[in-house]
Prior knowledge:
The complex is a heterotetramer, with two copies of chain A and two copies of chain C.
Chain A: H1 8-18, H2 23-30, H3 49-61, E1 70-71, H4 84-90, H5 93-96, H6 108-125, E2 129-130, H7 137-151, E3 157-161, H8 166-176, E4 182-186, E5 205-212, H9 222-231, E6 235-240, E7 258-262, E8 278-282, E9 295-299, E10 305-309, H10 316-319, H11 332-369, E11 374-377, E12 385-390, H12 395-404, E13 407-408, E14 411-412, E15 437-441, H13 448-459
Helix pairs in contact in A: 4-11, 6-11, 7-8, 11-13
Chain C: H1 6-9, H2 29-32, H3 50-61, H4 84-90, H5 93-96, H6 108-125, E1 129-131, H7 137-155, E2 161-165, H8 171-178, E3 182-186, H9 196-202, E4 207-213, H10 225-234, E5 238-242, E6 262-264, H11 267-270, E7 285-287, E8 299-304, E9 315-320, H12 337-373, E10 389-392, H13 394-400, H14 404-413, E11 420-421, E12 430-433, H15 441-456, H16 459-463, H17 476-481, H18 489-494
Parallel strand pairs in C: 2-3, 2-4, 4-5, 5-6
Antiparallel strand pairs in C: 1-7, 6-7, 8-9, 10-12, 11-12
Subunit structure (chains A, B): The glycine cleavage system is composed of four proteins: P, T, L and H. In this organism, the P 'protein' is a heterodimer of two subunits.
GO molecular function (chains A, B): glycine dehydrogenase (decarboxylating) activity
Family (chains A, B): Belongs to the GcvP family. N-terminal subunit subfamily.
Amino acid sequence: MSYLFHTDEDRREMLKSIGAESIDEIINDQVPEAVRLKRPLNLPPACNELALTAEMTRLAARNASADSHVCFLGGGAYDHFIPAAVDEIASRGEYYTSYTPYQAEVSQGNLQVMFEYETLVTQLTGLGVSNASLYDGGSAATEAVLMALSMQRGRNKVITTDVVHPQYRDILVAYLKNIDAELVVVPSDENGHSKPMIDAIDDKTACVLIQHPNFVGQLESVSEIAAAAKEAGALTIQVFDPVSLGRLKRPGDMGVDIAIAEGQSLGNPLAYGGPYLGIMACRDELVRRLPGRIAGQTTDRRGKRCWVLTLQTREQHIRREKATSNICSNQTLLALRATVHLSLLGPEGLKETADHCIAKTAYAKEVIAKSERFEVVGEGPSLKEFVVRDLGADVAGLLAHAREQGLLAGIDMTPMCVGGSEASEPAVALPSRYEQCFLVAVTEKRSRVEIDRWANVLCEAPSMATV
Amino acid sequence: MSYLFHTDEDRREMLKSIGAESIDEIINDQVPEAVRLKRPLNLPPACNELALTAEMTRLAARNASADSHVCFLGGGAYDHFIPAAVDEIASRGEYYTSYTPYQAEVSQGNLQVMFEYETLVTQLTGLGVSNASLYDGGSAATEAVLMALSMQRGRNKVITTDVVHPQYRDILVAYLKNIDAELVVVPSDENGHSKPMIDAIDDKTACVLIQHPNFVGQLESVSEIAAAAKEAGALTIQVFDPVSLGRLKRPGDMGVDIAIAEGQSLGNPLAYGGPYLGIMACRDELVRRLPGRIAGQTTDRRGKRCWVLTLQTREQHIRREKATSNICSNQTLLALRATVHLSLLGPEGLKETADHCIAKTAYAKEVIAKSERFEVVGEGPSLKEFVVRDLGADVAGLLAHAREQGLLAGIDMTPMCVGGSEASEPAVALPSRYEQCFLVAVTEKRSRVEIDRWANVLCEAPSMATV
Amino acid sequence: QSTQLLFELSRAGRRAHRLGDLDVPSVNVDDLFTAESLAETPPPLPELAEGDVVRHFVCLSTLNMSVDTHFYPLGSCTMKYNPKRNERIASLPGFLNVHPLQHESGLQGLLELLYELQGMFAEISGLPGVSMQPAAGAHGELAALLVAAAYFREQGSDRSVVLTADSAHGTNPASAQMAGFKTKTVKSNANGLVDLEDLKAKLDDKTAVFMLTNPNTLGLFDSQIEEINQLVHDAGALIYLDGANMNAILGITRPGDFGADLMHYNPHKTFSGPHGGGGPGAGPICVRDFLAKYLPGPIVTRVENENATSDDDRYTYHLTSPSGDSIGRVRSFFGNTGVLVRAYIYLRTYGGDGLRHVSEDAVLGANYLLSKVKHFLDVPHGNRCMHEFVASASRLKKEKHLSAMDIAKRILDYGFHAPTVYFPLVVDEAVMVEPTETESKQTLDAFVEALFRITEEGEELIHDAPHSTRISRPDDVTAARRPVLKWTDAAGESAT
Amino acid sequence: QSTQLLFELSRAGRRAHRLGDLDVPSVNVDDLFTAESLAETPPPLPELAEGDVVRHFVCLSTLNMSVDTHFYPLGSCTMKYNPKRNERIASLPGFLNVHPLQHESGLQGLLELLYELQGMFAEISGLPGVSMQPAAGAHGELAALLVAAAYFREQGSDRSVVLTADSAHGTNPASAQMAGFKTKTVKSNANGLVDLEDLKAKLDDKTAVFMLTNPNTLGLFDSQIEEINQLVHDAGALIYLDGANMNAILGITRPGDFGADLMHYNPHKTFSGPHGGGGPGAGPICVRDFLAKYLPGPIVTRVENENATSDDDRYTYHLTSPSGDSIGRVRSFFGNTGVLVRAYIYLRTYGGDGLRHVSEDAVLGANYLLSKVKHFLDVPHGNRCMHEFVASASRLKKEKHLSAMDIAKRILDYGFHAPTVYFPLVVDEAVMVEPTETESKQTLDAFVEALFRITEEGEELIHDAPHSTRISRPDDVTAARRPVLKWTDAAGESAT
């Protein structure tokens, strides 16, 4: 049977040592008759590797992918290039079939990678300390808010804006529902900037949560908002894009207290949304409230430098209900990928990637704006993402048309706006100004030929309305 | 620059230690001015990983493959299933970036694999000894002939037949042209059997070379031929199909002296013909004439069992012009794949694979024979390969039609027949009875749905001639 | 093999990755962006050549023990063989390179898989409502507790207490706390099972959920399960099953059949998703039908097509976004799809019968080890177990100063990963062994032999163990007291 | 980590791979085939579970040193970094799963690549005729010598002697012998270069080919190359260049420009194809135009399409099968395509300028090592070298009983693969070091430091080296005298 080892003879010998007649006897001894399942599980029949590979290959081929289509989708997950060396390393069994480094002596590989990852994240963010990863960017944002709330007893207000990733806000709403906290979502201004949130900060505010560049691709006045928060005694949490830091100022250099990011962009495949990598860094002083595992440096009994899991008194397996979070597993394998990716890029590679994104995005904005049907929404430069309004008011049809032409041309924002199907409550909606708009991401992978084709297909799409 | 390490500062420091002003100075010191290249090499410009990956992906997509098409091609290379574990293991850097085990202490991995491979080949063939691999089945067949010639001083005749793989015979012709040897290619009988060769064996015959199952998928009377050869003092060399040994008698059990095979079927991808794996085993007595590397067991200075390259006095780096062959590198990585593959299959898996090939081939013969246009050529059962005659006499058009329907439906045998474009001389031609025939291989991978579609597409193909 | 850090290998000016010239007009970034936005220099990342990067990480990997290289009987973690076909199939571009915000029209293959998987999870658990969004077991616990909270909120109930067993994983109380509940601990009895009297005493009209691990962390199936079921539900509370130990009971008994109202799976344990050095995992949850509407989303639904022409378009699959009664989301996008795809492949490989054999052989292996180990190590909770058991080094500690930690360290020298030690807390000097079904009898015998030899070895040899690893007994105390959590130039110089 | 053999892990009845039920009618094999054909049982292969197979081979791999894990300065083997992009791209199904007997209409992408590669090989060598069929360097030598033989045959010449240098790779004389030539050896002079007087003495009207390695195996470019060129060609013979050392001269000088008429490449060395533990390699050959018609085939040709509508169909590519004057085939099918694809990717990655930098840095690295090593090891042939150099332990052997072999064994303990030793034969106690261009100065410094320390270490320590490897100094003599070339039950029992 597939991966099982025991032959009938093995089983007989083992039962003899146990002193049981059968495996059933052992099980029936413990599992009361009344709760035993009296029938086989109703699952599809066992399938061998050849047949299953063939079937799954057909199934996979039925999905549009960033390989079969040209991908201009973003919204928190991006089609960046992943060097082959990243896959080669992450596919080593010693990494992907090992577990949490409970025995440091036989886990120095993973522990050193964690330590290197943490260091890279601090270099990237300009903040003092990083954990070894969280589940994803979205849940990391909420963990950061919970961290801020737990530091700021007596303050229970969390301020964010309607241009922070809607799904990230959705998580926040779910997590905060049963605890003593108030979420305030401040409307952005007509350019999609969050500066108006400054006025909402008060002495009950535990933290402000911003995204920069934000969900609609706009740059925020991070330093200004962080300064206002600081003055009011609140912490500033920034959601950042790792690739943007090839060019943009680092969170730590703008007064941010806790920086979080979706680390997918750093060498991790799109994978229909997961597994992803939650990056979190904070100022040194906040370390004892930082959720998740942390690797630290120490020496062994012979004085050799080595690495261990440390500060475990924050964690659930020691502190149980008094832990800073319930997080147990982390995303080591994805953190490894990010570590390898950043090692290959280095400072100049990261900068070059950002520069290519900027130039290609600028080019895409330029070519799409040539059509009378489309309007780029929001002023100012873009890192790799921007919003386009369909003056033909048929975004759904437009994108469907593009899909047929092999293009994943953008993300329809209409369902995310107030009253849209994905905006389950006002706190998670986008401003209504983004109705009949779509969000476009242009990474360094997109060639001029692809961008031109994208613009052509969109411009020549049939429209329901008349422009 | 791509994979280079040295920074300008490194280079300066290194030059200082060397006592040279520049690298050019070092080079010009040795390479006379007159022979230096005074211009840059005229190659395409350097290309980065992203762009090259994109370009090569497009190039690869322009090839029909056993993934994009359903493959019924054989003729010495087969679309057998390769379990994922084979790829996983062979893609470990410790295997594929190491080299010949010159230092046994740091090559025990490769050496043990070679020893295991050799053992598996002896188990598979029923012969006493195996080398650690040769280039491919075709060149291995010629190496076996050379081996036989070198053992049989005074005998210079090599007898084979016109149903041995034409390309294998082509190699033989090329290698024998400058040495004292006579190649006799005996015509097969009308059923494609090689028995008539028995009459050609005489006291000048060094060896007979047969293939079983042969190129046209027929079983040969191996024991009978080997017995006749033995009586005349000649050696018998058999080209075998590893998968067939799940069911067929082993070469060693039929009186064969040297068995060779193309090992591609054992876990190695089609790869447009290479790298492949030349398998060679022989009777114990012939070991000192066996070409190629051999790993053997010994003990180290502490008495531990271990493995080394051995019997190196046969090899070119010791014996130079007196070596048994000039072969230096072998195909360790492909031998590793075969070793893993056979370990996963075991005796029952190999038998089951052969059984599936047999049943699916029988089914394919049955369904194609239903059409009046086609006739299965040759009597008797087939392992996985058989010949179909197109009574419409338009094999080229037929197969082109099938390709358009996504089928690699068979191999056109016409060009291989006497006078055909691939039959450069009579010694390498197929008998003319195979004109307007095609060779079909059906492995365990082919599903009933695929076989039915194959038959339908062929039967419904337009025909130039009228049946 | 160097164990230098990346940062120490760095040399200014080296470069591995490079993009070529732009094929679009270049822009002057300094003009385009405000000075306020731009950094003066990119982050001070290390500068390396590709060959260095590869060798560095390949060599580091060899310092890990892993399932691919070693027997890894880490109790409670189900370190079973991770099938290579899972990795290959999950890496097909149609699964791996799919964007999470693609339109569902281009995702029918994947959604079909996920829909089928939801059904399999429901069948194995006996609980029909399934959400696959949570990213890990603990995340599933939290999500399920948020579901319970939403349920009670709609009921107008003020139940605010979660009961957890003293033998429970630490995540149980931590998750309850995060979900806004107060927690109380229920004791274990002398047999290692739930102390029913203590449970009765703590159950009241404030009790929202009793979190149960069954089989529990001692590897014992609680034979009182029917009574527990009765007590908790009579008190108006829900039962949550921590599914960490599902590998013991696949096809044998179902949480939904023995009283659980909510549960999570750990597909990276039970369904062979690799552990990834600590993650990623996944934490799909299953609930009874009356709780299904509160589940986090999206989940996959399907509609039959009346005009279908082939098997491929018989159904159209949809994502149902959280709305209405749903608690919303617990992470971005769908979930840890890659881990789920592997679980699906695993389940398809075994089928229903095969899955029961998995648990049978897991139970067989654990009981076999137990039958051997009990001759030289105390096993406080009986002669039989399910898929794992907990021995105690408490006597050895008294008699020979040989602690659970010492055993764990010394067994590394024999080429085995250590069992889990000091958990569960209810056993003194706990040594928790879970062999899984994917180890041979030969390996189990060699492990027993090694364990036995350790109990006979000299104290000093063991206290200094491990001897064969690159490092031995790192100083955890200093690590925590004077944390060095990142490399800096100075740290690099001081310690090598 | 067990080092048991597969056969010792086997247990009757275990099984990893399984096909399902047949979807076609099953046949009774015993009826279908004659009893004469059928074996009574399948071959006695080992019986294993998938988990065992994987762990076995993963663990075995870690007993190898490799480029991915260690500096591997094995002279003459060019153990450079093997780029991971090569592996990824070569594994695309459109390259990897292509059948060798497919019709060329479905191979235009691959044939375009191979056509371009032929051109690159011609450009780098300065020799316009290219065949990529040979499977390895030695195979290329043989193929080229068969080409030369065919040429002389057509000329009606009876030239039957091949001259090889005494410093040549052993494959040179062995290939000549296989091709039906007699061989004579040309001596090296005191500078390690071709002894021109000896060459003159041996060149006559029977000489067919002079096989030259340049740079030679001492790492020296023969500065007399113009004279050699003159002498050999004046004698009516051809010059064959052994291309093993091409890594030294890419873009610097071309064999065709310094007199070679035929040559082979080792793409697995020069163009970064991995060495695969001993293979596969490839051995494409290049020849002057008048020799091109004798090349083994098939080779790729192209025809311009007049009606092309896009870049993709601008040309149609064809395979030209051997015929007419061609020597025929030297192996089945096209050649070692997988290795060639990797070479193509490598060449595209560097481009022409980049390729020259490869050789420059390879030469720089070797000279840097030489400049350090010569202070404590004799380097008989000068202060400068090309991409490698040969030191001699001869003095150390006399003074300290420290042989080249001892150095090779001891350096393993320092975490470096050993240099090539005892080759070339013209240097006593030769230690042949080739760093390649893909190692950092830090690594080179550490290697020099280790070498130096070894020359200072105690005799005993070194004679028992290596100490850190699983085995040390295997008994080669017994291995050859009483060969054990396969596992048998008995052998398994006697030695563990």
